[in-house]
Amino acid sequence: IAGITQAPTSQILAAGRRMTLRCTQDMRHNAMYWYRQDLGLGLRLIHYSNTAGTTGKGEVPDGYSVSRANTDDFPLTLASAVPSQTSVYFCASSRGTSGTEGNEQFFGPGTRLTVL
Amino acid sequence: AQKVTQAQTEISVVEKEDVTLDCVYETRDTTYYLFWYKQPPSGELVFLIRRNSFDEQNEISGRYSWNFQKSTSSFNFTITASQVVDSAVYFCALGFNAGNNRKLIWGLGTSLAVNP
């Protein structure tokens, strides 16, 4: 069982280019999340999806878009990358979106993105 | 407002010392969840524990123990007889329900260095 996979592992990108970060989970979790991690700012939520077919904005959604066509995949797209989007991006998933169980989020290995 | 404070930015100990990582949270919700995650130098985020607000029972898992005190809004993490492999950044997080959404508020992390 792989859990959550992310691709690519790292990427250097020219400003203005379009980029899609891929995320796939095999745990049949309902909810998925995208975070960025920056030194001194901790983890910040970009977008989330409570279930396939739905998405929502997190704390820092500008410049990013997501889709959730099925349970397993949750790609994050930067339509026109800017240097301030240089960061480490983590995808996560959790089992439930209601009740008291399944709250914990499980993370992928991360994608290190550099925008020049 | 929901908030998580990890006042210790960096801690350095010598192997075999006990070390406690502090986490203080703020919330007005009566139902919430508290988490600890570990981020070793390799970069992945590893889930350690979840505690529900209605369960103040402390938890011990090997050398790790957690002390949940609602009276002081704290969820502290103690590593007994620390080892070099415990060197990592540790994050505390607060989870709560906001309508149909699950929100997770992260602390900024405590960087623990265990020296041989």
What's the short story on this structure?
The complex is a heterodimer of chains A (116) and B (116). Chain A has 116 residues and is mostly beta strands. Chain A has no helices and 11 strands.
Structural account:
- The complex is a heterodimer of chains A (116) and B (116).
- Chain A has strands spanning 4-7, 10-13, 19-25, 31-38, 42-49, 56-57, 64-66, 76-78, 87-94, 106-107, 111-115.
- In chain A, strands 2, 4, 5, 6, 9, 10 and 11 form a 7-stranded mixed beta sheet that branches. In chain A, strands 1-3-8-7 form a 4-stranded antiparallel beta sheet, with no helix packed on it.
- Chain A has 116 residues and is mainly β.
- Chain B has 116 residues and is mainly β.
- Helix content of chain B is 0%, strand content 57%.
- Chain B has no helices and 12 strands.
- In chain B, a hairpin with a 6-residue loop joins strand 5 and strand 6.
- Classes of the chains: A mainly beta (116), B mainly beta (116).
- At the A-B interface, strand 5, strand 9 and strand 10 of A face strand 5, strand 6 and strand 11 of B.
Q: Whole-number average pLDDT of chain B?
A: 93
Largest sheet report of chain B: 6 strands, mixed
Number of helices of chain B: 0
Q: What ranges of chain B have pLDDT less than 50 throughout 5 or more consecutive residues?
A: none
Query: Proportion of β residues of chain B?
Result: over 45%
- Strand element count of chain B: 12
First-to-last CA distance of chain A: 36 Å
**Proportion of strand residues of chain A:** over 45%
**Amount of helix of chain B:** under 10%
Radius of gyration of chain B, Cα only, in angstroms? 14 Å
Tell me how many strands of chain A there are.
11
Average pLDDT level of chain A: 92
- What oligomeric state do these chains adopt? heterodimer
Flag low-confidence runs of chain A: none
- So how many helices of chain A? 0
Tell me, briefly, the overall form of chain A.
globular
Task: Please give the most extensive interface between any two protein chains, plus how many residues each contributes.
Answer: A-B, 23 and 21 residues
Q: Helix proportion of residues of chain A, in percent?
A: under 10%
Radius of gyration of chain A: 14 Å
* Alpha-carbon distance between the two ends of chain B: 41 Å
